[in-house]
Amino acid sequence: MKLTPIYALLLLITHVSALVRRGAPANAPDALKCSFMIDFDADVDGHAVLKTHFEGKGVLWQESTSVRNKFANFVSVRIAGDCQDASLIFHGIPGAKTFSGVTSRKLAATQHSNSPPLSDAAYHTSTGVNDARQKLGLTGKGITVAIIDTGVYYLHPALGGGIGPGFKVIGGYDLVGDDYSDANQVPVPDDDPIDNCSEISHGTHVSGIVAGDARNMTAVGFVPAIPFTGVAYEAKLLAYRVFGCTANGTATDIIAAAIYRAAADGAHIINLSLGTVAKYADEPEEIAADIVSKYGHVVVSAVGNSGAQGVQMTSSPSNAKGALAVASFQSPVSLKPSVFVDGGSYPCVLGNLNASFTEGQVLEIVVNDIQAYEKRVENDGQTNINPGAKGKALLLRLGRRDVATSTERCRWALAAGAVQCILYEPTDSAQSITGNKDIPCMMLGREAAVALLSKIAAGEKPQVVISLKETLYPLQTAGSISNFSSPGLSLELDIKPELGAIGGNVYSTISEHSAKALNLSTAFKTLSGTSMASPYAAGVMALLMQHRASEIPSFNELRGYLMNTASPKPIYQNNLTHSVAYQGAGLVNAFYAASTKSLVLPAAIALNDTDNFKSSVALTIRNNDDITVTYSLSYFSAATVNAYLDGDDFTQDANTTTFTDDQHASVSFKRDFITIMPKAFAKIDVTFTAPAAQTAYPIYSGYIRVVASNQPEHPIHVPYAGLVGSYKNKGIWSRNSSSLATKWGGPLGYPPSIVKTGLYSPTSLTPLRDGDTINATVGVAVMILVSTTSRFASFEILAQGQTKQNKVLEAAGFNTSDIVLIQFKDETDEDGVPGMSVPLVRDVIPDGTDATEPGYQIFFGRAYNSSGYAADLPPGEYVIKFSALRNFVPFWSANEGDMDVIVSPTFKLVTGVAESSSARGSAAPTPSTNILKAATAQKLASRLSALLQSEFPLSLNSWRRVLGFAAPVMWKP
C-alpha cells in the first residue's frame, strides 16, 4: 500500500543524523538554532517584505545573508526567542516560495607534510600544463577564478601583494567576519576577504595552486624553497571568505550565497575545496552549483578525503550534476630528506608532530621484530616490544592504520624507552605520518627498510645517518590515485569523480600568520588532499577557457573537453586500469584538452544497476577541425570493484575492498569507423551488455576509446560504469556481517550475535529475545548499523496481541492509522528525539582510530503520534519496526514494499522499578550522543499543523529541511 500522507510528510521534513557509534559526537552535526533561508519570487524585495511581516507579528529578527540577482533571490534570517513555531511565524509571507532550515558545516584537517615542494617541471609536465604554456601560450590570462574558502592572504607577494584593479586578486567579499565560528554563527560581513588569522590558511594555499607566481621572490619570509607557479598564474582571483578565524564552521546559506555572488561578480570558475559527508545532492550548495552552471559558470569541487572508508563516499557539493567532481592523484616526484644506510641513500619522511633530528645525526637502530616484514605483522610493538630499545632508535613495521596509527605506534616505542621512533611501510615510498609529539619520528619506505633488515638479519651493524638536506626522489606512487581520495559511484550511481588532478604533496602559499603558527620561516607549505586537486583542476579549466574563449562553450562542453582528454591510470602496483568509480576519466591533461579538435558527448555514461540498465547510448562526435576526420571506436575494461563479500552485507573499507579482472561489460558499436566532414558532427549508437555477477554487487567499468585520424597521438576516452544487481533491493540495514564483527566487535570482545541492527539489553548488550520484558525505567538499547545510505528511515512502535486488540494505544491518545514513532533519548537530551532519520547515512570504520563500541540509543517507552502528540506508552506487548527507504525509490511514490524492514522480537513493556528480563548485565554503557537534538513532541505538532496550512508551496528540498533539523557534517579536505 501507499505510505500514508503524514508518513510522506514526515519523510520529507524530518532530519535526524545517522547513528554511527557511541563516542563519536563530532560526526553528529547541528542545525543552526532559529536560522532559516526564505526564497522569494524574482521581483520581490525580500528585505522589505520580511520587515513588514515580522513587525506585524512582533518577531525580533536579524538578517544573516542575502542574495538577489539573476541566479537567486533569498534572505537568510535568525529569529530571536522561541522559534520552534517558525512555520507559523513564516505563514503568509507575500511572494515567498520556500523556506528551509540552515545547517552547519565544519572543516577537517588537510594532510600536512614536511616534504619541500615539487618543481614546475615535475607535476606540471605530468598534467600537460607545461606543454599548454610552451606550445599554446596558455597562462590563464583573461580568466577569473573565485575561491570560496577561508579568504585569501592577498598581501602575499606570490599572490600579487594587494587587492583590487591591477592586482591578481581583483576583489571578493567577506561573508562572515573574523569572529564567525561554530559557536558564534552570527555573520558580520565586510568588503575585505583577507585570510590573515586562520592557522590553516586553506584558502590562501588553494589560491596559490590556481594562480600563484612564486618566482623572483626576495622579501623576507616570502622566499620559497623552490620557485614555482600556479597552474594558471596569470588568471585573476576573486576571494569569498565563508569561514572565520577559527575556520571551524560555516553554514549552507553562506556557501550558497558565495556561489551566487561569485557568479554575479563575473567569475568564470568557482572552486569549492569543501564538502559534506557522502549523501544525496539536494543541499543549497548543490542547487546553487546546478543553477550557475546553466549560465556557463564552472563549479569545480573536491570529492573528499574518505578513501579509507570504501566506495560511494564522494561528497557534496561535488555530487551536484552542475559540478565537476575532482579526485586526487599522486605527484610524480618529491623533495625529501634522506637516510643513508652504509652509504646508500633512501628517502624518508619526518613526523609532523616531532621531527627533532639533526643534520648528520647517526642513529643506533634496534629492530623490534626482524620477521615483522616477512610475516606482515600488523601490530608490531604492541605486545612484543624489544627490551633492547631503551636509549636506541626503535624500528617498527607500520601496519594497517585501523590497527594503530603512527602516533600510537611511536607511543609504544616511547614506553619501551626508545629515543627515536623509526617506522617503515611495506610499500615503495615513504608516506606522510603524524608521528608523536613526545618522540622524534620518521617513516622509511620499503627499499630503505629492506636494506636495513637484510643487513641486521645477516649479523651486520649498518651505519644509519640522517641528512635533512632535501633530495629529489621519484615517487613510486606517481600518477596513481591518492589513497585518501574518496571513491564513487555517487549514491545515485552517477559517475563521480569525473576526473582527477594532482593533490598529493602540493606546495603553495600560506599567510604570514599561518607560517608563524606552524613555526615556518617562509609563508609556503606542502599540503595533500582533494582540496589541492580541486584548485589544480580549476587552474587547468582556466587554461582551457582561455584557449576556447571565442567558442563560448557551455559547462557541459567544457567538462567534456577535460574528461575526453584525461588519461586513465592503472591501480598502484597493478597492471589493471583503475576503476572509473575511483578516477573518473583519469588524470587531467591541459594540453590535450586545449588542443583537441574533437568533442564526444556524453562525456560519461552511467549504466545504473541491473534493474535500470542503460543498454544503449547515442554518442555525438563533433569534428571541430577544418579537414575531414575518420574516427575509430573501441573499448577496454577497467578493474572490477568488489566492495561486498558474499554473505556479508556491510560495505567494505579500503583495506578489504578488492579489485579483479573479471565481470566486465561488453560493448559493441553500430560502426567501428565513422568519417565526419569539417565542422560537422555525427551520432553513433553504442550497445552495452552487463556482466553476470560473480560477487555481491560488483562495480564494473571501462572506457570507450575514440581515435581521430588527425590526432591519433592522444585518443579520446569516455568512461562508463555500472553495478550488477538490484540497487533498490540491496539491504540498508546490516543484518549479517562477519567483517563488521571482526573489525568492530572483535577488538571489543563482542560476539558476532550483537553486531547487527536490533534491540539489546542496555546493561549487557545481549540481544532481545521474543517474550522478554522491558521496564520503561531501564529501557532497551536500539542498535542501528547501516550498510547503505538511505534517504529516509523510521523506527515505529506497533502494538501486538491483546494490546492491539484492546486498542490500548488509541485509548492513550495515539492515532494508529498513521505511524507511531518511538522516542530516542540519551543522557544529554532532556526531551528526546523522534525515531526518524533523513538521510540515514551508512556506517563506516574510520581509518586509524581505536575500536569503539557500537553506537546505540535508548528507548524508554515513550512515543510520538504522527501529529506530534507524545506520551508514555501503556504497558503491553509491542514490536519495533525498523524501516528504511530503498535506493532508486522517489519520495512521492514510495510504498511499504519500497522499504527495507526489520521487525524486532515481541517484548512486554512494563513500568516501575523492577529489572527488565532483557537486562542480563550490570554495567550500563553510556548511551550515544549521536542523535540530533530535535524539537519536543508538542513543538513538532505545531510545526506540522502550520505546514499543512501553509499558503505557499514548499519545494521537496524545503519540506525536508524546513523544521531546522541537522544535515550531515561538512568536512573540508
UniProtKB/TrEMBL annotation:
GO cellular component, one term: membrane
GO terms classed as biological process: proteolysis
Presence of the UniProt keyword Signal in the record: yes
PROSITE patterns in UniProt: SUBTILASE, SUBTILASE_ASP, SUBTILASE_HIS, SUBTILASE_SER
Signal sequence segment: 1-18
A Pfam family assignment: fn3_5
Top-level division of the source organism's lineage: Eukaryota
Residue stretches making up the Peptidase S8/S53 domain: 140-572
A molecular function GO annotation: serine-type endopeptidase activity
Matching InterPro entries: C5a/SBT2-like_Fn3 (IPR010435), Peptidase_S8/S53_dom (IPR000209), Peptidase_S8/S53_dom_sf (IPR036852), Peptidase_S8/S53_subtilisin (IPR051048), Peptidase_S8_Asp-AS (IPR023827), Peptidase_S8_His-AS (IPR022398), Peptidase_S8_Ser-AS (IPR023828), Peptidase_S8_subtilisin-rel (IPR015500)
Catalytic center residues: D149, H202, S531
Keywords, sorted A to Z: Hydrolase, Protease, Serine protease, Signal
Limits of the C5a peptidase/Subtilisin-like protease SBT2-like Fn3-like domain: 605-720
UniProt record similarity statement: Belongs to the peptidase S8 family.
Identification of the protein by name: Peptidase S8/S53 domain-containing protein
Source organism (scientific name): Chytriomyces confervae
Taxon lineage: Eukaryota, Fungi, Fungi incertae sedis, Chytridiomycota, Chytridiomycota incertae sedis
